[in-house]
Amino acid sequence: MHTRRIGDVEVSAIGLGGMPMSIEGRPDEARSLATLHAALDAGVTLIDTADAYHRDADEVGHNESLIAKALASHDRGADVLVATKGGHLRPGDGSWTLDGSPRYLKEACEASLRRLGVEAIGLYQFHRPDPRVPYADSVGAVRDLLDEGKIRLAGISNANLEQIRQAQDILGGRLVSVQNQFSPAFRSSEPELRLCDELGIAFLPWSPLGGISRARELGSAYAPFARIAEEHGVSPQRVCLAWMLAKSPVVVPIPGASRPETILDSVAAADLVLTVDEIAVLDAV
After folding, report:
1. Would residue 135 show up in a list of annotated catalytic residues for this protein?
2. Among residues 53, 104, 135, 222, which one is catalytic?
3. Does pTM surpass 0.85?
């Protein structure tokens, strides 16, 4: 497995997003554990989760608990950087709400620590800005958690350029990651990716395969991904992730998966080398 860096930690170039294993339409626990174990067997050492990755109101942190169980039952579990998040909530009716208050973030971190069964969370990320709370206050809570040793690394998610710079300042230069939506269908985070590249901060695209699942049916929209995939004898999803990796050494995609074969196909993207011309074609899609 090729590797990249988040702060001072070396991680697999392709991570695993845990959300599909815990929200609506999730598989049974046995298949989820098999998916997580397949990722570990393939060399994945970054798993992304959040306390809000659950379905029902009475199971907050379902995904964190699932990941903790998978890591505890695998001999490579100790090698994994678990990245979790706080600041988003799911009341249990399918909706998403926000609470970026320092009080809530600190309580959420304590709960995540218990579910993950660790003394310090590997990477803790402020999940999404709360318009009711000054951004500096929310990031300040993450800084406090870092100073107190509750978390080892600090990141932010769903952030714009100003928020990245502000978080870097509040954290005293210790911001190690930005997790934003980025995919062939959603490219508005290109400026944030470029800023992360400039600052040497890891950029973690969430939902990186958005739109690619229908690459062959969408006609001209994503046809180049399907065409290049056919030329290489691989899936359009693998081409998509390889394209992202080629954009910058700070990019670490975290594709979601709920089946072993899906994450194994994603992991193989780290070995797929696209030509300069192919990358240019995909950039222009």
Report:
1. no
2. 53
3. yes
